Amino acid sequence: MKKTIILIAALLSISSAAAYAQEEKKDAKERLAEIEAMTVKAKKAKKARFAEKNLFDFDVLNYSGYGLHSISGSADWNMGNSREIILNILDLKLNPTNWLSINAGFDLKWNKFCSKKNYFEVSGGALTSNVPSLTADPAPKYKKSDIRTFSLSVPASIGFSVGKLGLNLGVEGVYNANKYTRVKTRYTLDGSEYIKKTKGGEVEKYQLNYLALIRFSDIGLYYKYCPKPLVPGNDMAKHYQTIGFILYM
Amino acid sequence: MRKVGLLACLLTLTLFSAYAGEGFLKGAILKIDMKDVVAERGGSNYSITLSGIKSSSHVSLLSLERAIKKAAQDKGIAMIYINTDKFSAGLAPMEEVRSYLKNFSKAGKPVIAYGTFFGNGSYYIASVADRVFLYPTGGAAINGLSSTQYFLKDALDTLGIGVQLIRHGKYKSAGEMYIRNDISPENREQYEVMLDSIWGSILDEIAESRGISADDLRSWIENLEIGKGQTLVDKGLVDGLKYRDEMEQYLCHLFGTTEPSEVKTVDIKDYMKKLKDGPSSKKIAVVYANGEIGEGRSVGVKIANEIAKVRRDSTVKAVVFRVNSPGGEVTASDIIRREIELLKKYKPVIASYGSYAASGGYLISAGCDKIFVDKTTLTGSIGVFGMFYNVGGAIKQNLKVNPVQIGTGKHSTMMTGMYPLSEEEQAWCQDKIEKVYDDFVTVVSEGRNISKEYVDSIAQGRVWTGKDAIDIKLADETGTILEAVEYAAKISNLKKYSIVSYPGKKSFKEQLFNKDDSDKNEPLVKSIIKPGFSVVARMPYFTFESETLLLK
Predict the structure, then answer these.
(1) In angstroms, rounded to a whole number, what is the distance separating the alpha carbons of residues B287 and B318?
(2) Residue B267 — left, alpha, or beta (φ > 0 → left; ψ -120 to 50 → alpha)?
(3) Does the beta carbon of B4 lie under 8 angstroms from any beta carbon of chain A?
(4) Which partner for B540 in A5, A210, B143, B174 could form a disulfide, CB atoms 3.0-4.6 Å apart?
(5) What is the pTM of this model?
(6) Does the interface predicted TM-score (ipTM) exceed 0.90?
């Protein structure tokens, strides 16, 4: 049996070698004639997993966003009314590959940090959080009190994308322009409604937030975490998280 | 025993898979674009024009031949694709490139040619391909070769310029254009023979490549039956008509795909950069004598100095003397000849002729150890002539200027070019010419080891094709420049060597500001108004020498 196998293998080897050698000697014209008679199966066009991208992209007013803050601190914050509104001014992208990008931008942000139980005041330039007095007579009934800030933010992230799906991870540098910080408090007293607006107050000037964004086509969901307190030297808002959505324009 | 069986099975599987893999081509397409001028020397040439600095890129013939030869053995190269549009090259280079393409095809690898229009030269190249395709609305103008000569006697007489031609060799027709109004019978005879010989070679090669009769081909050309694309297909001169996208799809088909992006192409210029040389301690020098010979010309004393340099360089083991010259001044030619003679004492010198190696071009190389020619090379023209122009009558007639000459003796004003030579002076010049001719014949006789009487019988200024030159012992065999290099290596027992070219290439500045007429012919006007006497061993100027006109 073994001898038979070896013999067959040897015969096949010799005939293959002879056939291969014969193939090599074939005239170029004959070879061409053979190939021309062969059929080529058309391949399905491969769907591009990664869309072709320019190396460098530059956009103005590329997106806007809306997010809700969840704030942790000594004050009693209202998440439903604590929000940020984002407007992108400049968006830069470096695309070294079709699936990787390095992003940086420049946004304007309008933040509102709201409480329905505490009220905020500006005293000597400092922001304070106060609990309504139970003993005051007449006692104002506070409806809402919020700290409003205006910020310039520079988000920077690394992005990964597959088709229309994308994930960005990065940081956001924020500069809070205290010149525009104000407090707005709505309360009723003796049946009349009052709105008290106070300019001033100081929030943390520079913040560095952590950022994660999932994007599908022109919509994105983002999460940010700001580890720094909102108001320096005050634990009313020790840190906060933001969840929101982005619309790409 | 089990191990032997296993080995045998593995071997079988390997061979089967290799065999089973045969079918579509595998590898890359080596692309050759014939719009890049194939010249003796490669590189970029710069010149100042009215519209700025113009650069033209030239592909070196030697490098091209080496690249095609290498590609034939390179498993990474599956085929050659030639685009013949805007074709521009000389006869001899094309003959040589054609032979290498033929060998490439013989190695079992296809050559495909494509063009939008075929002229004499572009079809000559395309015909060697295994498949020739033409753009559907294209056609061909394969009409044969021609030569146009201009005779200026009447024009010069009108201007009052006198020309006296003193020559040896009834076929030495170079100066006839100045003293005649028509072609001499001898001149007509030699050019008819030359043209017929060259065209005959071209037609034979085309017919052989296309598998048709040379007589049929000649008949079609004579009767203007070759013109439109479909006619070319019907007559078997072209394999098909294809648009460019169809051509692209055809090439894809050869590689078993429909996607052009899956077919790899390599440009010949990029492929040439990969040519590797051997050790620099063993060199073969290729010395180029390219252009007219004379002081201030492209082939002057500088070439002689380069040859002396090569002689003194101990790393140079053999020399290929590549001649592409119609000749020129006798003294300059002899200076170069002498250097070759000295060089031969130290190392083998092999001559390789390009499009021309005639007159002075033949003189400088006749003494080489072996002479390779192309079939279409024009050589011989062993003869000498002297031209004497006198312009005294012209300036008097046209400019009303009356020259008066005073000299110390009867012949002191002889070379001033004002008045014709007297009979005595003509005889003196004739004697000088005869001496130069005798020296020329002696050089050829000694170099080729044939009798002076025999040389005289085939000389007389007659121009011969390379093919005929072998028959009459003016050359040894047909061969390309690369074959000459390989022969030089063989007789020097060199297996690995590097190739070095002389003279070195000109710098950008030198190209812009130095005169170099290596590829240009002397303007007609310049040659007329050069008073004085010069002894020249040179082929005549006429439109035939413009090879692009010949083969376009």
Answers:
(1) 11
(2) beta
(3) yes
(4) B174
(5) 0.67
(6) no
